Amino acid sequence: MIYTLENDVAVLKVDTWACEIASFSRKDKDIEYMWNGDPKYWANRNPLLFPHVSAPANKVLNFKGQDYSVNNHGFCRKSEFEFVEQGEDYLLFRIKTNEETLKEYPYLFELDVRYTLEGNKVSIAYEVKNKEDGKLYFGFGQHPAFNCPLDPNKQFTDYRIEFEKDDVENKVIELSYEFFEKYHTFVVNEPKSRVFTLTDGENSVIMRTDDKYRIFAIWTPMAPFVCLEPWVDSIERDDVSTPFEQRDVVILEKGESYHIGYSLEII
């Protein structure tokens, strides 16, 4: 089911399926900023990567000493979230341990996602709660996809990604499909930037990220969209043997909560 937030400037629609943004647009522009999930290219839109980012090549992870078959980037991207409540400027959704999550991840957790709309900016805040009688281990990341071109009269190559700081040469990546033939997924480890802008000089998406994100990735399957992906961590595809609890993931003590988030501003 889709829930809507609206103000004088923008309209945001969020789907309970995968808790993804279904639409984000301004009232003064005939532009849809978010990818629509066309399965011809990629059926997702802006999935939440939890309880792990990426997956081993064999799609098996060892939790609590037992092997589990997993999906790439975890189960949230294929899960129905619970709608909790709506306020004047926010929507709150939740997913927690259930029969389906236990098939891939034998931990007790609760994860809240809050979307807050202010003007032309949406802030997305996440809270992971440890419901275990002990430590909770998990990975975390985001995978939002934006139409590229935003303006249908322009082309993919009219766009660039601007970095706040010098993580890349001249702080800019000029987009082309040739670039993604060379870098299937372009990854910046430990980025200094916390602001990333997809722009054609007139229309833009500005992403601002929490400093807990330690990886920034850019990806497209040679499609009319591009993903700007802040990750906390990522599983090495070739590492098929390390137990999950020994990997570089978030460790949350009993009774504690983990907070993280980012925002998107549409220009």
Mean pLDDT: 97
Q: What Rg do the Cα atoms give? A: 18 Å
How would you spell out the order of helices and strands? EEEEEEEEEEEEEEEHEEEEEEE
Shape, per Cα inertia axes: globular
Say what oligomer this is: single chain
The CATH topology annotation reads as Beta-galactosidase, Chain A, domain 5
Number of helices: 1
Q: Identify low-pLDDT runs.
A: none
Annotation, overall tally of beta strands: 22
CATH architecture: Distorted Sandwich
Task: Give a description of the structure.
With about 270 residues, the chain is mainly beta. The protein has one domain: Beta-galactosidase, Chain A, domain 5 (Distorted Sandwich). Helices cover about 0% and strands about 45% of the residues. The chain is built from one helix and 22 strands. The strands form six sheets. A nine-stranded antiparallel β-sheet has the order 7-8-9-10-22-18-17-14-15, with no helix packed on it. The protein has a four-stranded antiparallel β-sheet with strand order 13-20-19-16, with no helix packed on it. A hairpin with a 5-residue loop joins strand 2 and strand 3. The protein is globular and about 55 Å long. The two termini are about 25 Å apart. The mean pLDDT is about 95.
Quick description:
With 267 residues, the chain is an all-beta fold. The protein contains 1 helix and 22 strands.
Describe the secondary structure blueprint for this structure:
Elements: E1 2-6, E2 10-15, E3 21-26, E4 48-49, E5 60-63, E6 66-69, E7 82-86, E8 90-96, E9 109-118, E10 121-130, E11 136-138, E12 141-142, E13 145-147, E14 160-163, E15 172-174, H1 177-182, E16 185-189, E17 195-199, E18 204-209, E19 215-219, E20 225-231, E21 250-252, E22 257-266
Antiparallel strand pairs: 1-2, 2-3, 4-12, 5-6, 7-8, 8-9, 9-10, 10-22, 11-21, 13-20, 14-15, 14-17, 16-19, 17-18, 18-22, 19-20
